[in-house]
Design the sequence.
């Protein structure tokens, strides 16, 4: 039996165990491969790696607010995670904790075929870094808006227009993305309602990485925007993570299984 997990705070809402365990059940019946996947609430970010090793995990996902910490605690980082300095997937290989970021490709999943030239990202954490990287790979001009200045330094160093919420310019954006936890377990918005309404008035689409309806998405629909929640991204990044956990399994069947469970 191989053990896997997802670390976060909060974590009770996570559907990742449901998705991954459904695949493990399927493959145990078909191939005899045995695995399980559990949610783990972590209080101290610096305990992340020690908990991973103590539990004897072969792999894990890392969610809010530990993606940047996971980057720094990794023994080795591969792929675009090096660029965004945020990790959402860990795999134990030859005694080393190797970090990846599957959020980047996962974020783009529901946007296929959508024309986006300008985007505004609300929030400045690890998820925002992945979103910036994903959009830049498609040639999208991106700006970042956050309530506090501390985490904006990373984006400013990348020459990405970055603003405090109160200074956010009311420009026209094709897509506005919420990468914050506002609306995850509360009725909060990622910034002032008046600012959002003004931004939505000129926007076309709104995307929330949270995978249920949120006040952000409700307000966007009131303003007649087309909206996307995080379900498609959740499945896409989970499939990519699973491919790192168990590389020899059939990815199309993994995708089909996870989609069946979520819908």
Sequence:
């Amino acid at each position: 039996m191989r053990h896997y997990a997802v670390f976060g705070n909060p974590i009770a809402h996570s559907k990742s165990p449901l998705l991954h365990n459904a695949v493990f059940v399927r493959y145990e019946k078909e191939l005899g491969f045995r695995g399980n996947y559990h949610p783990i609430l972590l209080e101290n970010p610096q305990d992340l790696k020690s908990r991973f090793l103590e539990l004897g995990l072969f792999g894990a996902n890392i969610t809010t607010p530990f993606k940047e910490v996971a980057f720094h605690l990794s023994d080795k980082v591969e792929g675009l995670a090096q660029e965004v300095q945020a990790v959402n997937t860990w795999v134990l290989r030859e005694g080393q904790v190797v970090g990846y970021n599957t959020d980047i490709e996962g974020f783009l999943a529901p946007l296929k075929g959508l024309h986006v030239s300008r985007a505004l990202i609300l929030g400045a954490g690890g998820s925002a870094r992945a979103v910036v990287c994903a959009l830049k790979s498609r040639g999208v001009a991106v700006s970042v808006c956050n309530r506090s200045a501390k985490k904006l330094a990373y984006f400013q160093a990348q020459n990405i227009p970055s603003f405090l919420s109160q200074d956010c310019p009311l420009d026209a954006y094709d897509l506005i993305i919420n990468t914050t936890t506002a609306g995850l377990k509360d009725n909060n918005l990622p910034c002032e309602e008046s600012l959002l309404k003004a931004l939505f008035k000129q926007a076309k689409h709104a995307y929330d990485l949270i995978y249920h309806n949120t006040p952000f998405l409700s307000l966007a629909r009131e303003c007649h925007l087309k909206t996307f929640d995080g379900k498609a991204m959740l499945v896409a990044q989970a499939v990519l993570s699973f491919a790192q956990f168990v590389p020899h399994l059939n990815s199309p069947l993994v995708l089909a299984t996870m989609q069946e469970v979520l819908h």
The longest strand covers residues 2-8.
